[in-house]
Amino acid sequence: MAQYTKHPVTAPPTAPERESTGQLLLRAYAILAFIVAFAHTALYNLVGMNGAGIVMIVLTLAAVAIGVPMITRAKPHAFAWRRLPWSALGYVVFALLSLAWSQWRGPTIITWLLLAAITVNALLIAHAFSWHEIVRTLASAFKWILGLSVVLELWVSLVLQRPLLPNFLTLPDGDIDPHWYWVRDNFLDGGRIQGLVGNSNVLAIICLFAIVTFGVRFALRERWSTTLALWMLLAAYLLLRAGSATTYVCAIAAAVVVAIVLLIRRTRTPGGRTRIYVICTASAAVVIAALIVFRKPLLEALGRSADLTGRTDLIWTTVLERAATHPVFGNGFSSPWIPTDPSFDGWIVDHNITVFHAHNMWLDVLMQLGAVGVLLMAAAYLGLLWRAWFFAIDRPRWDLRADRPYSPLTLLPLLFTVILLVQGLAESTPIMLWGWLLLMLFSFKVKSVPLVGVGLSEQARVTERGQTARRIP
User: What gap in Å lies between CA 436 and CA 122, rounded to an integer?
Assistant: First the structure.
């Protein structure tokens, strides 16, 4: 039974402050937005293209309905307009301008509306939530996706006992290409699984993001640490069962970055940091050269072909040929490509399926928006990488005190950015949907709140130490 003193100087204890219904609904909206972005293929396989579009429209209208009153009622300068990710927003504007010269105006309009919707949702989440709340909502979304992936795989293997097609269509007679399946019924036979998202590569990268997020929460010593450890084990198991070579490389890159950051955090002099930078740069050059020279045996060891599963010979060459027709401003924005549009229908076909992106973010941008688009995208990602790097390695400081402890949370934006950049060499997802959501979210958040628990959008929030966060100019 709780006891407290009746001394007149000591105030009686009070119950912990409960979150308002509005805050709970706002968090539920953010979790739903993350699920819709990361598991968009599941939504497409469940309700079709039109249904997925309606869900995105409703979600965006909800974001506007929530965000406009929040910004207009806030105190002056509460919304950090000057700290918006202008390079990324410039890319959004240029993508809209490409409608004037687009070779496929229909896909440009459709996909730009999708890009704008993702942008609005990302900026709202970055403004409305603190760093800790963002990590919490990300973790909740990943738990839903991983949990539903296991449930769907078990249902297909134990109940349905046959592969599952999108929209629950009936399997036709005869053999069909496994790439058409939503779930291939491989959970119990040891084959590659696809989970809720219906794609092994997407499931694997989501598992990697989940491991990073759960690991950050575990390092923060939050409650339910045992449960977080179990979720990390589940994510690692699903990652291995998905068998994505690209994700393995992303995981290695993320592990190397963590090691370098920890080394830099231990150094106490600028000269020590410089030596680490020089050693790491030289080592990276040697590793890249070795990967180029020994690419073929390494890919064979990973069970992949020397042409990166048809990317170099089939996809990249064809995309470069189209990019060469309009090298400066591109052929027109379309991320992803619309397979039913005549400009893309049957243009690049793999496993009897029309390919809907270039499997390389930089080639994709070059083909769509030319050299100008590549420069804008490079500025957006390099700007985020630069700020996320110093967000992770610099000790938190906003006054004369220089001995504050590092927060494990500061590693999250850097690791997500590194994973996106490495994945972007073999996929185009970093420039669309959840990739674009993460870019906008972290770009705005790191610029507007460069210190965990301190900043304009985190004013009056409770920090890890139970103190009220200060407002910095």
Answer: 9
Q: Structure tokens of 73?
A: 């009622």
pLDDT of amino acid 468: 38
Report d(CA 157, CA 153) in Å as an integer: 6
- 3-class SS of residue 390: helix
Burial of 88 from C-beta contacts in 10 A (0-12 / 13-18 / 19+): buried
What confidence tier does 1 reach under pLDDT thresholds 50, 70, 90? very low
The span from the CA of 468 to the CA of 460, in Å, is: 6
CA 418 to CA 281: how far, in whole Å?
16
Strand partners, 454: 451
* Alpha carbon distance 153, 171 (integer Å): 17
Q: Which burial class, exposed, middle or buried, applies to 141 when counting CB atoms under 10 A from its CB (0-12, 13-18, 19+)? A: buried
pLDDT computed for residue 399 by the predictor: 67
Looking up tokens 């440009």 gives 108
CB contact at 8 A, 142 and 416: no
Secondary structure (3-state) at 343:
coil
Q: Considering Cα of 269, then 271, then 275, then 280, what sign does the dihedral take? A: positive
Contact indicator for 456, 449 with CB cutoff of 8 Å: yes
* Predicted local confidence at residue 5, as pLDDT: 54
**Per-residue b/e over 304-329, b at no fewer than 16 CB within 10 Å?**
eeeebbebeebbbeebeebbeebeeb
For residue 430, say if its preceding peptide bond is cis, omega within 30 degrees of 0: no
Query: Mean pLDDT score of the chain, rounded to an integer?
Result: 84
| 211 vs 198: CA distance, rounded Å | 20
Tokens 């896909």 identify what position? 107
Mapped onto helix, strand or coil, the DSSP state of residue 359 is coil
* pTM attached to this predicted model: 0.88
Model confidence at 462: pLDDT above 50: no
Kindly state the average pLDDT of the residues 444-468: 59
On the question of pLDDT at 459 being above 60, the answer is no
